[in-house]
Design the sequence.
């Protein structure tokens, strides 16, 4: 591009090995407009858990989107917000595959539970069983996708660890490997590591999903390998990626975006066309993969899951608890 | 050397410089608008086949699995692990959200030319005898009009979001800032010709066009707070406006100094 701000995610020489040659080759290919990744670009680097993925996707018929086609895979894996790597959405797919290992990976579950857990993600997936659900995904930036996730409902895991009566909230934490991802040091004004939280009843809702794969394949690094949360009726930033810890807490956990801008990103962050972000409207959203001009659609209350989740918020002032 | 300065002051120098971004934007639209294997995603009406709501089993007969799954090659391409020399090459999407890119790029170029045109006269007053600067100063009108041209594209692309978005956005401060800036630029653009100069008279015209300085804080705010504000956006905006941030105060200081000297001379 003629005018482009410098690549902020490029690792220093010390961290890159043959990945740096991969990077410059990719740049050349991109500049020549050839665009093809295949051929002459070997990549060292692990990808995500490969546990228990069935031959044919085990689609859960309760969760289908009939009025929209799934967003094409290259968009789902090529347009990501993952500030641990870079703020450039289309560069994350490269930055996150510069040798960051997401296998093996351990998940710890603790806090106010009877049976705390420390388990390899592969083993956990094999135990829980993988099903496929097609969910709407709505980013707070007002764009949206339709994504077929592979995983299991969080409620299954919650049942396994048995939270005590003290547990009122669930706190999720992601990785903080400062050597693997340049964002931690490049964007020090964020309260790393990325954390998110849900109320216990929201976490126990059948819709709340732990995804280990997408489109029938393991999660690519840029989508939050090897295990991520998916909360489809909330804005996308609540669907925290690359989980390392799940804690059951008594108090409302603090979240990265709420700490960064409390008047803009609330704890609940339910998709609500009637409650706008202070700086832009949430009444419409852009369909990723749609036509360039005119692919804006109306945002649905609770992202189209109003029937399933509205009871959770009965009597709650959604403008106050945004 | 004289031929060089003549060239710099000529249309052959400035027209390519102001029109190249336009061709780049056209190319973006043409080439970046999609990805070879991808179909346009129109919202589809509900399917005819009724789905059994409560069962957890997969139903082979009713669903086309291919829309929910990808091949091993596509997966490897997404994780950057395609085999060397592989026959199956999957193209990388150049631009996912073209509308966003078009909005950003047209806006950036409008700002580029805006900053450029307002840097020209400070440069001239600071480097009076530099021939390159004087040659550049002949292009103030063209560059100013280029700024308005890209601003029109920028505004146009934004308007394709539809009236609903516009109505709900109109209360956002940065949008208001942008709208005011556009209105001012419009007035400046339509008076950027010799006829207006003659009609208004040099002094009035000059005063009118000085309003462009008011646009500096407006456009700074508009760019810095557009969309997802973070330190990165603010930093980027500072970078774009840096010539003005440096040059304008310098020029103001210089002019004040001159005025003081003149006053001192008159007094003595």
Sequence:
């Amino acid at each position: 591009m003629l005018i482009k701000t410098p690549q902020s995610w490029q690792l220093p020489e010390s961290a890159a090995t043959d990945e740096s040659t991969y990077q410059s080759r990719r740049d050349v290919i991109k500049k020549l407009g050839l665009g093809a990744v295949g051929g002459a670009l070997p990549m060292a680097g692990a990808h995500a858990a490969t546990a228990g993925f069935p031959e044919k996707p085990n689609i859960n018929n309760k969760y289908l989107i009939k009025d929209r086609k799934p967003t094409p895979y290259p968009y789902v894996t090529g347009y990501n917000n993952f500030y641990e790597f870079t703020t450039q959405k289309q560069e994350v797919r490269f930055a996150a595959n510069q040798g960051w290992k997401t296998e093996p990976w351990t998940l710890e579950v603790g806090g106010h539970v009877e049976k705390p857990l420390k388990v390899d993600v592969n083993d956990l997936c094999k135990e829980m069983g993988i099903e496929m659900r097609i969910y709407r995904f709505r980013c707070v930036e007002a764009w949206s996708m339709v994504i077929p996730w592979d995983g299991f409902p969080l409620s299954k895991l919650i049942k396994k660890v048995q939270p005590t009566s003290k547990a009122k909230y669930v706190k999720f934490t992601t990785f903080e490997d400062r050597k693997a991802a340049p964002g931690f040091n490049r964007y020090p004004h964020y309260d790393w590591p990325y954390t998110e939280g849900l109320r216990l009843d929201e976490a126990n809702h059948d819709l709340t999903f732990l995804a280990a794969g997408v489109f029938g394949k393991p999660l690519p690094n840029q989508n939050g390998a090897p295990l991520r949360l998916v909360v489809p009726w909330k804005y996308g930033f609540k669907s925290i990626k690359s989980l390392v810890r799940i804690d059951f807490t008594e108090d409302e956990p603090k979240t990265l975006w709420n700490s960064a801008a409390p008047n803009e990103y609330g704890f609940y962050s339910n998709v609500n066309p009637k409650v706008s972000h202070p700086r832009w409207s949430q009444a419409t959203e852009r369909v990723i993969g749609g036509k360039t001009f005119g692919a804006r659609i109306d945002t649905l209350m609770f992202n189209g899951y109003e029937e399933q989740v509205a009871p959770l918020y009965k009597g709650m002032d959604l403008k106050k608890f945004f | 050397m004289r031929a060089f300065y003549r060239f710099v002051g000529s249309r052959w120098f400035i027209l390519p410089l102001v029109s190249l971004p336009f061709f780049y934007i056209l190319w973006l639209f043409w080439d970046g608008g999609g990805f070879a294997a991808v179909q346009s995603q129109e919202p589809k009406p509900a399917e005819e086949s009724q789905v059994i709501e409560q069962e957890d089993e997969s139903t082979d007969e009713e669903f086309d699995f291919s829309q929910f799954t990808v091949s091993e090659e596509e997966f490897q391409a997404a994780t950057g692990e395609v085999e060397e020399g592989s026959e199956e090459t999957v193209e990388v999407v150049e631009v996912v959200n073209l509308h966003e890119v078009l909005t950003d790029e047209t806006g950036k170029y409008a700002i580029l030319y805006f900053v450029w045109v307002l840097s020209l006269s400070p440069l001239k007053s600071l480097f009076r005898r530099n021939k390159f600067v004087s040659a550049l100063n002949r292009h103030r009108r063209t560059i100013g009009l280029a700024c308005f041209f890209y601003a029109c594209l920028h505004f146009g692309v934004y308007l394709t979001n539809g009236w609903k978005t516009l109505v709900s956005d109109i209360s956002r401060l940065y949008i208001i800032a942008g709208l005011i800036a556009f209105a001012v630029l419009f007035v400046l653009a339509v008076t950027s010709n010799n006829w207006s100069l003659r009609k208004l008279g040099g002094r009035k015209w000059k005063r009118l066009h000085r309003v462009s300085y008011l646009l500096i804080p407006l456009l700074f705010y508009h760019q810095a707070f557009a969309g997802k504000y973070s330190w990165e956006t603010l930093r980027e905006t500072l970078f774009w406006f840096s010539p003005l941030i440096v040059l304008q105060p310098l020029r103001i200081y210089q002019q004040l100094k001159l005025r003081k000297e003149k006053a001192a001379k008159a007094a003595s």
Q: What stands out?
A: Confidence is low (pLDDT under 50) at residues 1-49 of chain A. Chain A touches chain B through 80 residues (CB under 8 Å). DSSP finds nine helices and twelve strands in chain A. Residues 19-31 of chain A form the longest helix (13 residues).
